[in-house]
Amino acid sequence: MKKLYLVRHGQTLFNELHMTQGWCDSPLTELGRKQAKEAGRSLRNVDFSAVYTSTSERTSDTAELITDKPYTRLKALKEIYFGLYEGQREFTQPKNWFVDNTDAFVPYGGESVQEMAERFENCVKAIMKKEEGENILIVSHGCTIGTFLDRFAPDTMQLIRNQHGIPNCGIAVFEYESETENFVLENLVDPLRWGHKDDDVVKL
């Protein structure tokens, strides 16, 4: 059975400064690079047949620190577009926009959460249909992965939301059921928090 490995990018400068970062970009911090290397260590036993990232450099830089496999960059895997809120301080964002005000950025030229979730899910499904190998790595973003978890593992996503969201370089492992196009969450890993114990290594 095919497996999907969804990884959020490592910490960036904008993450550290608490600035809104959707389609705009900023480099990985020293911590972000360390997170990506730890994710690579956790995934060292997995032979990826294909690797994908968004077109944001923070995801491709993360992928290069996780694996030396070649990768494909796709715009549909990008973070939600925040419109005029891009590059602004996070505290200026509308309250609870991810859950209760999902069209909050549309009046400012941005995307709705639904639009972002649909393009991301459709892209992931297209990738899983296309690829013939067993292990697919996609490096993407907090909101894209969050909506995917909300769709296919809502109880788990609620727990993650209560703990301040998906950590940088957090790994979500799904089994893909091709006949139904369903994804079943198998494992969640936060490599930097858990360190190098054998139990933290994602196994085939």
UniProtKB/TrEMBL annotation:
<dbReference type="InterPro" id="IPR029033">
    <property type="entry name" value="His_PPase_superfam"/>
</dbReference>
<dbReference type="Pfam" id="PF00300">
    <property type="entry name" value="His_Phos_1"/>
</dbReference>
<keyword id="KW-0378">Hydrolase</keyword>
<protein>
    <submittedName>
        <fullName>Histidine phosphatase family protein</fullName>
    </submittedName>
</protein>
<dbReference type="GO" id="GO:0045820">
    <property type="term" value="P:negative regulation of glycolytic process"/>
</dbReference>
<feature type="binding site">
    <location>
        <position position="58"/>
    </location>
    <ligand>
        <name>substrate</name>
    </ligand>
</feature>
<dbReference type="InterPro" id="IPR051695">
    <property type="entry name" value="Phosphoglycerate_Mutase"/>
</dbReference>
<dbReference type="GO" id="GO:0005829">
    <property type="term" value="C:cytosol"/>
</dbReference>
<dbReference type="InterPro" id="IPR001345">
    <property type="entry name" value="PG/BPGM_mutase_AS"/>
</dbReference>
<dbReference type="GO" id="GO:0043456">
    <property type="term" value="P:regulation of pentose-phosphate shunt"/>
</dbReference>
<dbReference type="GO" id="GO:0004331">
    <property type="term" value="F:fructose-2,6-bisphosphate 2-phosphatase activity"/>
</dbReference>
<feature type="binding site">
    <location>
        <begin position="8"/>
        <end position="15"/>
    </location>
    <ligand>
        <name>substrate</name>
    </ligand>
</feature>
<dbReference type="InterPro" id="IPR013078">
    <property type="entry name" value="His_Pase_superF_clade-1"/>
</dbReference>
